[in-house]
Amino acid sequence: MTRPITFIDLGVGGMTCDDCVVHVTEALESVPGVERATVHLESRSAVVEASPDVSAAALAGAVRATGQYNAFERGRRPASDG
Amino acid sequence: MADSFDLLILGSGSTAFAAAIKASELGARVAMVERRTLGGTCANRGCLPSKNLIEAARIVHDAAHPRYAGLAPTDLPVDFAALIAQKDGVVREYRAKKYASVADGLTDLELIDGDATFADPHTVLVGDRRVAGDRVLVATGSRPTIPLIPGLDTVPYLTSDMLDADEAGRLTELPESLVVLGGGYVAVELAQMFSRLGSRVTMIARSGLLSGYEPDLGRTLGEVFVAEGIDVLSGARVERVSAAERGVALAVELPGAGRIVRAERLLVATGRTPNTERLGLDRAGVALDPDGFVVVDAELRTSQPHVWAAGDVIGRQHGSQMATPVGARQGRIVAENAFADARRRFDGTVIPRAIFTDPPIAVVGETEAQVRARRYPAVATATPLAYVPRAGAVHKTTGFVKFIASSIDERVLGVHVIGESAPEIIHEAAMAMHFKATLADFIDLIHVYPTMSEALKIGAQAFSRDVTKLSCCAE
Questions:
Q1: What is the pTM of this model?
Q2: Read out DSSP for B373-433?
């Protein structure tokens, strides 16, 4: 049985180029419990697939720790909805 | 289905813009709802247009009163309509540069015209449109207070809104005579401006000029006003307002006497009221205080956790003041708290403030009465500007600087200045207080000679030396 997965929607500030996308993706994927992060430059957002116990503060904190970017949670939905 | 945003801002003044800019940087999608003109009070009908016209009035006055032997006074003809037209041009240009184009340059910002009323804690109605915000900022500002005086609602009257470039109530003709109701900062600035441009001005001030400030500031200004021909009625109460053959008539109760004051126009400048009653804040679960100000904590959060309030709508809570740069600072704090979990608190300890009369006034920190009221041991000294070399050199010696300092460690608690360049020199005092400076720090700093800023050095020295015996450069 696989672990339950949640989709977490984030707003992301401070990105200007594809390198930024890489940095934010790496920051989000460094958080324990995160399976995958998909970061969008144009819409300044990210979707994180993670275990439900990953907190908004952990994700935002990892992104802010880069010193260049900001993230905040918009909402989350269970993967089973699809 | 509602349009949905990360941050929904009600209002579009300095508070709203600072919040929108910072929130956008932090990644938020922002909507801003404005019912009047983009830019709020300051840009459209407050600081900016008044400062424009006040400077024009100063030029007219200085031409007629050149202060120097050898310079002949001259009367500059005033074309009031042209003066107003150039002011409108300045306002529109400033609005375009500092607000409209800034808004255009922000990612994910939508400006929405109309009246917003809450339908529920996350949603406002703007006409037929539903606009939702995950977080909300109430930054709807304030408007002139209209006092309850019998008959006032039966006559036309002006407020500071007359300074607007585009609204119906704008003033385009110079009144031959004007009665100004109020004695606060708006009242004194506009009274002197109209007087210098040629109106015969009477001020009716219930508690004198600039009550709440250091008392000698209002007293000094009052003497200047009387010398300039402004009739200042202090301790006066208006019993009734009625229409007169040409303008208005006010029945005024003075200490021991009654009097009828007549003028072509009436300007009501008796304070400012928060714009909160039409928003349906009860449906958002946002609490107001008895005067209609939105109750906030030091992080500027209201009683509803996802709703913040900032700017004029919070009044004087947490040391706040109704002032453009104060709102802007708070707007930025709200964005950082809402989207970066910054937990920043508003600190109102050091807020410099100016009143653009001539001579101008500028203050920062506490008054002597405020320090005494909290029973803090303090010393206070006022030094006339006559001891400042530059003041004498340019024949502008009216005024003083007053320091209030701790008796324990000489830390400066308040600086109050009336005199030439006060709004500029106050920043030295504000920066010093920001770094918790003592009287010795002001004395230690080498000041440019001869400048009005030397008043601060001399004012600090006055606690320990006889400043009438200082040589050049106040050493």
A1: 0.95
A2: HTT--EEEEEEEGGGSHHHHHTT----EEEEEEETTT-BEEEEEEESTTHHHHHHHHHHHH
Set of chain B residues whose Cβ sits within 8 Å of the Cβ of A58? none
CA-CA distance, A66 to A64, in Å (whole number)? 5
Can you spell out the DSSP letters for B418-459? ESTTHHHHHHHHHHHHHTT-BHHHHHHSPPPTT-TTHHHHHH
AA letter at B175:
P
**Nearest-neighbour CA in chain A from B5: distance (Å):** 10
DSSP string across B121-176: TTEEEETTEEEEEEEEEE---EEE-----TTGGGS--B-GGGG-SSSTT---S--S
CB contact under 8 A, A11 and B24: no
Note whether A72 contacts B29, CB cutoff 8 Å.
Answer: no
What value of ipTM does the predicted structure carry? 0.92
Contact B6 A12 (CB under 8 A): no
Interchain CB contact of B339 with A (< 8 Å): yes
Provide the 10 A C-beta neighbour count for residue B298.
15
Instruction: Collect all residues of chain A within an 8 Å Cβ-Cβ radius of residue B29.
Output: 11
Cβ-Cβ pairs closer than 8 A, A with B, add up to 39
Q: Which domains does chain B have, with CATH numbers?
A: 3-143+273-340 (3.50.50.60), 152-270 (3.50.50.60), 353-466 (3.30.390.30)
Which of B26, B134, B341 is facing A13, going by the closest CB pair?
A: B26
**Domains in chain A and their CATH numbers?**
6-81 (3.30.70.100)
Closest residue, chain A, to B22 (C-alpha): A13
CA dihedral angle for residue A44, residue A50, residue A52, residue A58, rounded to 10 degrees: -60
d(CA A80, nearest CA chain B) in Å: 25
Q: Select the residue from A10, A43, A55, A72 to test the B interface by mutation, using most B Cβ atoms within 10 A.
A: A72
| pLDDT of chain B, 475 residues: tens digit per residue | 569 999 999 999 999 999 999 999 999 999 999 999 999 999 999 999 999 999 999 999 999 999 999 999 999 999 999 999 999 999 999 999 988 898 888 888 999 999 999 999 999 999 999 999 999 999 999 999 999 999 999 999 999 999 999 888 889 999 999 999 999 999 999 999 999 999 999 999 999 999 999 999 999 999 999 999 999 999 999 999 999 989 999 999 998 899 999 999 999 999 999 999 999 999 999 999 999 999 999 999 999 999 999 999 999 999 999 999 999 999 999 999 999 999 999 999 999 999 999 999 999 999 999 999 999 999 999 999 999 999 999 999 999 999 999 999 999 999 999 999 999 999 999 999 999 999 999 999 999 999 999 999 999 999 999 988 888 788 8
CA distance A76 to chain B (A): 14
